[in-house]
Amino acid sequence: MEPDRQIEIQLGHMCNNRCVFCVSGQRTAFGEAGPMAVAPILSRIRQARELGHRKITLLGGEPTLQPGFMEIIEETVNLGFEEIVIFTNGVKTARPEFVDAILATGGNFTWRISIQGATRESHERTTRKPGSFGRIVRTLENLQARGQRITVNMCVVTSNYEDVDRFPALLARHGASQLHLDLMRPLDAGQRTEEELRASMPSLEALAEPFRRMIAGFDEGFDVNLGNLPYCAAPDLAPWIHHDGERTETIAIDHDDQLSRPWNKYLVKRRDKLKPDTCRACVFDDRCSGVFEHHARFHGIDGLEPIDARTLQRLDPRGRLLGLWGAALLRESLGDGWTVRETSEQSARASRDGAWIELRPRGEGALARHESFSVFGDPGAHREALAAALAAISPPVHPLGDAPADAKLAAALRRLRARAPFGPLTWEALDVQPGRLELALRGPARERATFWLALEDGRPRGGYHVDGVATDALREGLGAALAALRGRPA
């Protein structure tokens, strides 16, 4: 678990790259960025620790260029910060002895490496610094050899977005654990003309396909973040999109190279964005901070349409955002009188008069399972209403039903639920009677059968009867149900 209070401090604007999206390289080129006095920085770091901050990020410019960098590192270690993040462009850290000097302080470091393109060509087009990609690779090798945690950050601009699908191979080779791509923020770019900004900001439509290819290339579970991409630009990528982030206070450098007061990082970063009134109808409205005003001016916003819960459900077959669309669809299906809330990214809960259910991904012990989720909880007296609502949201694999009192019948029912569906049959209803269960099953041509399970001499026995003609689909499905009951392969 990451420390829950964190601060980041900008150690001046000096930088040895000239990135097209960043004020620091530009100010350095203009001769406006110089070394920072160490004492005020150390004072701010001590204040942050006294206020309870447990994680600190040191960034620039390029923080390692500051003459007092090692003194600052030693102080953060001595003050007991639980995590120290060094946000670097990988120039000085290409030297093994420099990395070793930092590690010798004994701190717990995370290295956030600024890789501004997944290939040499795109990185150096963006940094405008020949040889900078080679130094990045040596930095990655140095850190990997020393067992350090490596994360990667890239600012998305025209010069680097097209080959982001090369990141999975690069990062896997060097043991990185996270990649964060963030759309360029014009207010952070320095003194740029409208033509320069327009040339650096690709359309949102152009970004979607390279991002899809990139995410498909990563192993399941790799931590990928797409920062500030409006959800409606690529709703299928919603599980990887993030606006804002963890609560962070920032101490930045003003135009006169003075340290600012701490400010809320993500609140400030919303000030040059806009959201049309139509966004209120979007399921992502509370999560999305909108689109940069410059982007709207350069590319327009006509193609950015609100996303409804049904659309998101269809685009999210793995249920990564089940909590979001599940809560919205429960509200729609249950109506007034119910308390419905998103309990996590992957779960949503509905409750009323002591009855409650929670939608989660498939899991053991579910009361019901639908194509898009499993159902847990205690439906109480509202079982019928809940069953109807759940069926309206997603077709059932096995429906909501009472739990039998007998332990052997309950165990047999769990086996049936775990193995459902049964071939081509749909399990439509469950009827629980004393000492007996009945499963109503329907075939693809709407043919019907009832599978029953009863206690005979203390042991569960199963059988079935067919309404009408016993079709091949019914035979296949009922055979699968019997095999599930007996614990045999279907």
Walk me through this protein's architecture.
The protein has 490 residues and is α/β, with parallel strands linked by helices. The chain has three domains: 6-307, Aldolase class I (TIM Barrel); 316-394, 2-Layer Sandwich (TATA-Binding Protein), CATH 3.30.310; 402-490, no CATH class. It has 16 helices and 22 strands. The protein has a ten-stranded mixed β-sheet with strand order 8-7-6-5-4-3-2-1-9-10. Helix 2 packs parallel to helix 3 and helix 12 packs across helix 13. It is elongated. The mean pLDDT is 91.
Features of this protein?
single chain, 490 residues, alpha/beta, TIM Barrel, TATA-Binding Protein, 3 domains, six-stranded antiparallel sheet, 22 strands, 23% strand, elongated
CATH architecture identity of the largest domain = Alpha-Beta Barrel
- What's the CATH class of the largest domain, please? Alpha Beta
Kindly, what is the distance between the CA atoms of the first and last residues, rounded to a whole number of angstroms?
Answer: 43 Å
**Most strands sheet:** 10 strands, mixed
Radius of gyration: 29 Å
What is the fourth-level CATH superfamily of the largest domain?
Answer: Aldolase class I
User: Helical content, roughly?
Assistant: 25-40%
Structural class: alpha/beta
The domain tally reads 3
Residue-averaged pLDDT, rounded? 91
User: What is the strand content?
Assistant: 15-25%
Total number of strands: 22
Number of helices: 16
Overall shape: elongated
Low-confidence stretches: none
Q: What does the oligomeric state look like here?
A: single chain
Q: What is the fold named in CATH at topology level of the largest domain?
A: TIM Barrel
Major sheet strand order: 8-7-6-5-4-3-2-1-9-10
